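Protocol step 6 of 9: fold each sequence in the batch and record its structure tokens directly after the sequence line. For illustration, a two-sequence batch is reproduced in full.

Sequence one:
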Amino acid sequence: MKHVNNQNGIPVSPSLPFIEGSSQKAKNSLLQKTRLLKVSGLCVLVATAVSVIAKFLVLLINLVTNISFYGCVSTAYHSPANNHLGLWVIIVPAIGGILVGFMALYGSKAIRGHGIPEAMEQILVNQSKIKPSITFLKPISSAIAIGTGGPFGAEGPIIATGGALGSTLGQLFKVSSNERKIILAAGATAGMSAIFGTPIAAVFLAIELLLFEFSPRAILPVALACITGAAGHRWLFDSGPVFTMADLKTPTNQALAIYSAIGLAIGFLSLGVTKIVYFVEDNFEKLPIHWMWWPAIGGLAVGCIGYFAPHTLGVGYDNIINILSGTVTLLIVVWLFFFKFLSWAIALGSGTSGGTLAPLLTIGGAGGAILGAVILRVFPGAGINIPMAALIGMSSMFAGASRAYLTSIVFALESTGQFHALLPLLGACTASYLVSFFLMENTIMTEKIARRGVFTPDSFEPDVLGKFTVGEIITTKAPSLNPEMTIREVRDLLKSENNDANYFIVTDKKGDYAGTVNLADINNHNTPSDTVLGNILQNSQQSLKSTDNLRKAVELMSEEGVETLPVTTANKVVGIISYIDILNAYKFYHQQNESTDRHISLKRQRLKVLIRGRELFKRGEKVV
């Protein structure tokens, strides 16, 4: 609280602080825009570095794959499915698991998992601070895990690496925790954009899973970072869609309904996938050995499955392309669907390092293709085709498992270039999202951190304080006092008016603001009754206008350390607003939105029609 001693008279210009405050507002606005430019520059810098790291990660995965399965030193891509190791293939993923376990134990335990939940946790509970060591430990550990046959995608590790790099840069520079969050999200999503060349989907991923807000100060830097990541993809990888497939035709309404039904079925499947993954993880927790050895056990299971189903080993982007193009037989798709899921669930549950997006796309695409084939076998005239069914299965699996609704739809469009699939994707992902929302409390991204007591926001509601203006809730019933009144006079006045307000405006004879006084100070028995109000005033350097919103009121109250603020018009005090008024407005908003009421009564409308009918009938009789 700030106190003003008015024993020597009222200040010459009580409204002067308000003029200074107006100048300060302009400075603050300019400062915020300058900081936005600074943060945007840092995000572009992080995105440039992450694009190079993404290329390095892919080359490193290729190098480890070639050494592990072919015994040669090369960074060219070779699928581990074509190896000739025989039974020795079982040992390779286990060796990778041992190396990852040692890195987690002696480097950082944070490299375990698929990256996005860990980034979400740091944003929510640790002011977006990630250890700098994750920047190089995560890609190296992931390259070892994936290169030795781990059934993961490269996108999860690069998202985690980009987030760690963004967080590190945010800790090196003088930025706020919210700005650090933005830089972290920019680095993470730039990594996704660099791997897949999907900048719009990456922006939506930031909104739905990392930022937990939608505002210009957050979206602009992230969008610039994602554009930079997409440019890096074109420069370092390829300019075309990452998942090529034959052009799809616009479906009929009948086909659209069937595709939506497939999305509904995949939604239920996504529930099972999520439950089984965490069931496996829970059972690893029960093992009577140190967690460092779990990735090795998971790797041994991956190797065993890989011996019978070689295409489950490694990243498997080629599997997604084959499923979407419809070039593989249904038997192979069923084989891949079952064994890829089994391998991935065990590996991820063991706590090794890798991503979830590519496996989910593979499993969902295979599931959609299988459902599409079954429907065509039973109903040959259904009007659907298997590549489209695979595409919506791929997208709706991600929508159901992660509840990244918009990301799933846009990612499928950008990664394939099949924009005729928009309506089927919209229907299928909506159906899958509905199933997930109603039947699953947490997603595959949030279950792990929810078990640690971390609450993840699941909605983006408008700022309640920004919807109300000060004029809508202003308190004007409080009597206006002058600084020359004594405590005794004020007590008598309040007693006669039976006023129950807690705060009172104090103005001079001209009506200019002099300060505020609270009821506790007035009734304080330690204060002599002949004390004038000018000696106990609480004076704020800020004021509000009736058109200002409540968010501004809260900011000013916090800045000034006061519980009330005067409301002025043309430098004349018209009322006072307190924190209690703001709380009541917040309560009113939620009561208004949650209360139910019927504004149109069908019964009343029917009665009106009957009455009017009778009147017309009576008029007709009179005419006759």
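Sequence two, same batch, same settings:
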Amino acid sequence: MYAVTFYSFKGGVGRTHAAVNIALAMATSRLRVLLVDFDLEAPGLSSLSVLAPPGARPHSGLVEFIADSWQTRQTQDPAAYIYEPKGFEQSLGVMPAGAMGSPNFPRAFRDAKTFFEGAFDKAKGMPGLALFADLKRAWASLGYDYVIVDSRTGFTDTGGVCTRLIPDMLVVIFGLGEQGLPGVRRVLEQVGQETLYGDSIDVRLVASMLPAGELEQRDERLKFVGKVLGRQPDMLLPLVDRLLLKEDPRHFVDSLSPLGAAYRALVESIRQANPWDVHYRLAQAQQKAAGTDLGPLENLVDDLSGADANQLPEETRWATLNQAASALIHAPARTIEAKVRAVRAGTSALRLALARLDRYGNPELYGATLNNLAYALQALPARSPDERAATLREAIATFREVLTVYTKDRYPVKWAGILNNLANVLQGLPGRADQRAANLKDAVAALREALTVYTKERNPVEWAMTLTNLGAALQDLATGSPDERAAALREAVAASHEALSVYTKDRYPVEWAGILNNLAGALKALPARSPDERAAALREAVAACREALTVYTKDRYPVERATTLNNLGNALEALPARFPDERAAALGEAISAFREALTVYTKDRYPVEWATTLNNLGYALQGSPARSPEERTAALHEAIGAFRDVLTVQTKDGYPLEWAMTLGNLAAALQALPATSPDERAPALREAIAAYREALTVYTKDRHPVEWAATLTNLAGVLQALPTRSPGERAAGLREAIAAYRDALTVLTEDRHPDKYARIAANLGSLLIESGDTAEGQRYLESALAFREFLPDRGSAIESWLRQRG
């Protein structure tokens, strides 16, 4: 609570008019205001029609409060002496001077006067200090944000109470005439900028009733005022002639009146000076934060964290801390360090609020604070992958607790939104393949639940957002059989198509581009039932990326553009071509897309994305057709260099799966590198063999069976092609290659992977025959020939050999 006294040494300067306008202006700004008439000998607030008590009957007020407290020797509850004018319920209270006109008022007035005669007598213990200290605390306990006191004029005991005991701010209103200025100066000297309790008082000098004309004479008088008072007025209130005839308690709303503008400026000045007007401070801090100045928000969070019940009502404190911490977490920052500091400060503040909030006393606020904490944990920067995973697990647990507060039956829309947030965290949680699959299944289930509330008709934007998230989660879900995988990706494609019926380019261009990007990823990964279906899906993916790039321009959305270029390059690379020139054009565009992405994804700013894109570029270069052997060699050397650079970021400790994949790509490029002699070819193949063997330390059969089998197959192929220096070395290579093929076939079986089985069985059969085991080699060749459609280049030769064997 913040108390402001409006004081004037002489009457007739517009003090009461200003006090009433300021009180009403605040009350209409969603603040709770108490207006107190301390002019006990000439009261008038309750006579204003806008402030009339209920039924227009006299209402007891300050005189009765003082008299009753003095008579009983106990501070009374001031709520009994306050009323709310019609139309201002819950926003404006009035404590009148007293029930003038009632039979009991004269006695009460005498008792109050008797009290004041000894109120500040040291011999009597200065009872006034205790009473008015109690009164101020009681006002605060009633939940008022501001108390506006209309004070008595001149030098009186009541005037002293209003200027030195009660206020946090003293607004001294005076005219420019000479008679009142010495009195104003004396009051300022008495106040001395602090209350009798030692608390500082903020003083505002307001010159009033200034005529519109005579500017030169007015300026001279203002200079004179400055000499007499030792300072210039803080604000000027112009004279409005018609207000001399009829008061206007709502003049502050007059947008064309200079006096209305001055009243609004005075409200702003008062609110700005009040450190506990947390709503005002929050609004101002949010404006600053929009320009990346986080200082005011950080200060507000600190103040609220350390506040006590005497400074702020507990509910106001925690509700505002919740808002301020959330704003701090979401605000943009000038540097990464500033963002990290802001998110950590906001998270700590939300934890403090939750420790003090009553879940059952205010479930709405408790749930909102939990939700903001969960979001903060999701955004909290971590110093290591383990710390990041632990933070995300806490966010998941927090979102799940939120769902026990915001239930579907009571808060269906909020419940659906929280499920959406929960799904996003589950989708981003790192872990082993089985843990990741379980988390993605939970995310998909949460999003499907949210869609039981979000419908296209009632919540079109939320419905489309949830479908977008569902598509992304389904796309990441890589578990189950090939049929289950295909079904998930088809559902992802369908979800993206539906979302695009709401997120259109003209209304939501950024979201539209993002969904197209996701759609392209799902289409690229979609298993097809025929080559034509596969080609159609990839062409749609390419078209989607190109469309997204019309929104994602490099100057406005550099990172999003780089991501989309990456996706475009991957889709083009996978696109089957109808003729060689089409293939060359697609790979050329893919390579250009990856190169452009690398102008954004630099190693120092985006090391992980840089490494991924460089890997993609290397893979595209490795497969690109060349117009000459020299061009082919140059492309492979560039690919090899790219893969080696990638490995400086994708290390085994930090990114084991990506490290193993890149080693596989490096080995394939080394294997494809042309050489003019066996001696030149052997070192490249030996490096390829070493790379595959390294990859197998990560790709193990139990954790990554398909990748393990594919790497063994590739290793066997290099061992088979390796030039050897002796028959013994050749025999050892063949034995390792045969063992690798046998192991690979324990995973790549004829029923689950017939295409891969056919090629491996054919290679294994040939190696067994070369090593002298003709009978077993023949059996493998015969089993491979059962899937002849996957052996277009070798099927005829195998058939011919088998016929010769009879």
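Proceed to step 7 once all outputs are recorded. Observation for sequence two: The CA atoms of residues 289 and 539 lie 44 Å apart.
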